[in-house]
Amino acid sequence: MKYTVLLLSLIFWLFPFKDFEIQWVENLDGDFSFSRKHSLKSEAWCYEYAGATEITAKRLHKDTIECYTMTNAATHCSLRFYIVNNVIRNPRIELNSIADGKHLYQCNEGNIIIDKKAMQKDILKARFDMKFDHPENPEKVMFWKGKIYAKIK
User: Fold this and answer.
1) What does the pLDDT read at residue 18?
2) Which among 25, 23, 53 has a CA at the least distance from the CA of 38?
3) Which of 40, 60, 65, 72 is the most exposed place for a label (fewest CB within 10 A)?
4) pTM above 0.85, yes or no
């Protein structure tokens, strides 16, 4: 675990991303009925995206949780970020394109609201909205937004 934290620190230093503060609430309201079948309800515009319904939240350390969406046969991009204490760190979209390889899109603006009571029960219950750098076409907004309800492993 100590080496994982050191490696993450090095990555954060080498690749500056737009980190942002978490807004904590006692009870996040809204419709989370999707959680009976899936851990993610979202909409996005990014390359080779046809929908995602699963997100993994994995505890790496006492104060660090790694989150990433699952790819599938039609979706080749993944939303990835870390929750470190009260901050979202290294938020990005990783694209493993079937046409031209790997691409990384850094977050340039974002917000997330997380349910504090759910987090105390090792459940990530959140609403988020992130926008990403899009060097191929800066006029077209690349985004990912939605709701998460996932057991932290």
Assistant:
1) 78
2) 53
3) 72
4) yes
